[in-house]
Task: structure prediction
Amino acid sequence: VGRLVAFQDYLFHAMFSMMLFCSVFVMYPRAAVSAKRIQEILSTQVLIKDKESTMNVPTVNEHTLDFDHVTFVYPDGEEPVLKDVSFKACQGQTIAFIGSTGSGKSTLINLIPRFYDVSAGTIKIDGQNVQDYSMEALRDKIGFIPQKAMLFTGTIAENIRYGKEDATMEEVVEAAKIAQGYDFIMEKPKGFDEVITESATNVSGGQRQRLSIARALVKKPEIYIFDDSFSALDFKTDAMLRKALKQVTKQSIMLVVAQRISTIMEADKIIVLHEGKVVGEGTHKELLKNCSIYYEIAASQLSEEELAYE
Ligand SMILES: Nc1ncnc2c1ncn2[C@@H]1O[C@H](COP(=O)(O)OP(=O)(O)OP(=O)(O)O)[C@@H](O)[C@H]1O
Ligand SMILES: [Mg+2]
Result:
């Protein structure tokens, strides 16, 4: 019996090795293809680079943002997505963008941190072309809240600290409070140490948006860019958030993309985009009077009394 067991054991070892050896033949082609794809990514040339000689960050009394006849065509597109867009924003102002889906709102604001370079025209921050800044200096000035709120695996506090690595706990808590996230964070069993799972499945859409707003707030940038960042919030939270934001963004330029008229009604300037062109510019009241596209959007959302502009 002893010999038989030993024989069986040896046989099993030999067979197992053979099987492993065979699986190499199955795995090899897969690995080869994967390696090729990884190599492709690693060897991709970055299209948007720092210039060889970048200029220093200018010191100014008042921060400004200028769009000067900006036209933009996506690298793989034919038709321009933005056509001859010009506007100016100063420190302390809130500029809002509204327009139907696909009118180019996200495209427009993506040009500011240089996710793409303009095809014609210039964008200037503090009077200096964005292309003359180093990437680091440029993005340091900007707090960007993308349309699709992205969170990373890690705790809530870590996620907020992505905005500013050396932020103290007080700063993190303050940012969370302004972003109206403090209450729901405290309801989590571990509070700020609650772990966000991969692709943030354990927080709701609106909570995700508020965390990504907190991440931008902790940085205290000169320019805030909100791309439809209030869309998943209920009207009450939206209003409270805007009120709290007003207090902390007095020294900054706020750019807000929104679909809801109520979100942007109080902006200093509203820019109406339609098929990549600016078709209206002014305050809520001015636009109701002068811009038919804005009036149509407003009419679909507001009551008769609210629409009366006199
Ligand atoms: N990466 C891209 N490559 C090519 N075309 C694009 C790209 N991203 C957007 N577009 C096109 O540019 C146009 C404007 O898109 P954009 O995302 O700026 O719209 P939007 O105003 O932000 O819309 P929404 O309100 O739905 O967010 C669309 O017609 C879209 O198809
Ligand atoms: Mg968009």
Remarks:
- The chain is about 40% helix and 20% strand.
- The pocket of magnesium ion (ligand 2) is lined by residues 105-106, 147, 227-228 (CB under 6 Å).
- The first helix runs from residue 2 to 42.
- Residues 64-307 form a domain with the Rossmann fold fold (CATH 3.40.50.300).
